[in-house]
Amino acid sequence: MQTPAQVKLVDTVAKHVLESVKGKARLLNMGAGRSTVLESLIAKYGCDFTSDRLDVDDCSADHPNVGECFVCSAEHMKPLKSDVYDLIYSNYVLEHIENLDAAAQEIHRILKPGGLCVCSIPNPKAPEFAIARHTPLWFHRLIRGGSGWHTHYAYTSVKALGERFSRAGMEPVEISFYPCVEQYFERFILLRWLGALYDCLVRIFHIKGMMGNICLVTKKSAT
Q1: Cα 70 to Cα 131: distance, rounded to the nearest angstrom
Q2: What is the 3-state composition of the chain as percent helix, strand, coil, each rounded to the nearest 5?
Q3: Architecture of domain 4-122+155-179+211-220
Q4: In a 3-state reduction of DSSP, which class is residue 60?
Q5: Which residues, given as ranges, of the chain have pLDDT below 70?
Q6: Which of 51, 69, 75, 192 is deepest in the core (most CB within 10 A)?
C-alpha cells in the first residue's frame, strides 16, 4: 500500500520529467533496495527516463527503466559523476542516514543545475515517530512484517532538515504533510481502525505537527 507521501513523490517526479526535462530524463533512486515499485509507478505516467539505483547493498533489478546500479552510501557517492541527474528521489531513506550534511552535499554535486531532490520522510515530531525512536528494531520488524532498518533521525524536525539542504545549496520548494498512522498498523485490524480514526481527526483539524508522513522537495540552483 502506498503512503500519501509516496503518491506525492511519484506524482512530483513524473510531472518534473514530463514538463521540465527535455529528452530522456536521467534519475537516481537513492536507497533503492531491490524493489522496482517506484520505477514502475513513474513509468505509468508515460515518462521517458532511465533510473540509476544506489544503496549500501546490492540494488540491481530487472526493469526496462533501470540503468546503472551503485553500491555505496548517500554520504559517499564518489562513483557517480557530478552534474548528471535531472532528479533524485528516495522513499523513507533520509532518516537512516547518519551524516545528512555529507549526503546533502553529494546530492547537490551530482544533480544538474535546476535539478530536484524529492524525498518521502517521517516527521520526527509526530507522536508515532517520537515513540518509534525509543523502541527496539525487533519491534519495528514485528509491526512491518519482517522488514526494518536502523534509524538515526539525524534531523530534529522537517524545518531543520530543510535548513541542512539549504546549507548544501538545495533550497526547499515544497513540503507536504500527511497523517499516516493507519498504514503503519495495517497488519493489525484493531490498531488499524484506531489509526484511521486518528488520521481522520488530525486531517480535519489540520495539525501538521501530528502528521507523520512528509514529502520534501528541494531544488539545486539553476546557475
Answers
A1: 33
A2: 40, 25, 35
A3: 3-Layer(aba) Sandwich (3.40)
A4: coil
A5: 133-150, 152
A6: 51
